Amino acid sequence: MSVKHTITIEVRKPKTAFEKSVYGTTLTTGNNTKIFIKHGQTTQEYIDTFYHEIAHAFNHISGYCKSEKKEESLARLIGNIVEPCYRVYKKGKTSEYKFTKKRV
Length: 104
Prior knowledge:
The strands form two sheets. This protein has a three-stranded mixed beta sheet with strand order 1-3-2, with helices on one face. A two-stranded antiparallel ribbon has the order 4-5. By secondary structure, the protein is an alpha+beta fold. It has one domain (6-98). Helix content is 38%, strand content 28%. It starts with 5 loop residues before the first strand and ends in a 6-residue tail after the last strand.
C-alpha cells in the first residue's frame, strides 16, 4: 500500500501578523504539509529557515518527535548545521567565508 504526502512550500510576503513575526512555519493536516517562508530574508536566513521547516515537515510526516520542544530543538539544529554548507569559502580557508548579500 502506497501512502502519498504532499509538501507545498510558499516563499512570499507575510499575510498575517503571525507570519510577520516568524521566519517560517509548517502546518500538517492529514497527508498535506504547507510550509510558509517569509520573503525578504538574507540568503543565509533563507537557507536556515528552509531546512528548519523541512525538518518540521519530516517530523510531522514520520511522527519521529513526540515532544514539541524536542522537535523545535532538532529543527533548529538541522538549520544551523546545513546553512554553513552553502557558504562560499575562500580557497583552502574554511574559516574565512563570505555570504552573498542577496535577499530571497
